Amino acid sequence: MSEIRGVITALATAFRPDGELDVESTRKLAAYLVENGSHGLVVAGTTGESPTLEDDEKIALLEGVIAEVGSDITVILGSGSNDTRHSVELTKMAAEAGADAGLIVTPYYNRPNEAGIRGHFEAIAEGSPGFPLVAYNIPSRAGVNMSPAFLAELAKIPEVQAVKQANDDELGPIEGLDVLAGNDSGFFPTLKFGGAGGILVASHLDNGRMRTIWDLWQEGRHDEAEALDNQLRPLYEAMGVVVNPIPVKAALASRGLLPPTMRLPMVEPTDAERDAIEELLATAGVPAR
Q1: Which of the following is catalytic: 136, 156, 192, 249?
Q2: What is the CATH classification number for the domain harbouring 152?
Q3: Catalytic annotation on 136?
Q4: Residue 242 in domain
Q5: Predicted confidence band at 3 (pLDDT cuts at 50, 70, 90)?
Q6: Domain-located, residue 76
Q7: 57, 15 in Cβ contact below 8 A?
Q8: How many structural domains comprise the chain?
Q9: One of 28, 156, 164, 249 is an active-site residue; which one?
Q10: For residue 234, is it within any domain?
């Protein structure tokens, strides 16, 4: 299987003007990203508007993206939810459809304790033996945090091989797990402590330079990598002008890379928000196309 490391882009999902899924446009975006530097892709994650996607739509996207980019590119499906039985079944479907791993978010809203979270991951792993799982720690959305000590305990489940760490306050090495930055701003800090890379949003818009940061770091050219990361800080900031994935989809649409349509409750940015996004992208040197 492909390695879960490097610049992994959390792929945005395309929709037609009527809100129906647009697999073809999503495939084109996936191909563009791989051609321009992404090591891998996450399908149907937060940036892909996963809460509004049906299971059959997620699998259609997964199969379409794999067909587009080939088996040498890491493709991960967001197959977790706050319903363990549902997560077990969707993860099985992901494995059968050819995904390299499942991204398993901490159960949100019902906010289980550590025993419940452990049981959740154990059930998913038992349902798909040998299929790699990436834990997704995002307390800002899930309402519960998995501490580094607890994540190290989850690593004792053989299938749990990595974590997307979106809690920057606890970003650091975790015994037994490959750590992937869950926020764009954490990408370079993760490389500094020997992490595996990041699952990123900003790489939609400049994955050439983000890939160069990765390559420079691997070559030992650490000062150059850090200087390039500093150049991209306004880009990372742009992705947070309003809640993700609104900024990235607006920026992609303005560059002709993806239709602007979003599914409610996500909406397109206001004019003021759009101007703020584009101003930050310009500061970072991201072409307007």
Answers
A1: 136
A2: 3.20.20.70
A3: yes
A4: no
A5: confident
A6: yes
A7: no
A8: 1
A9: 164
A10: no
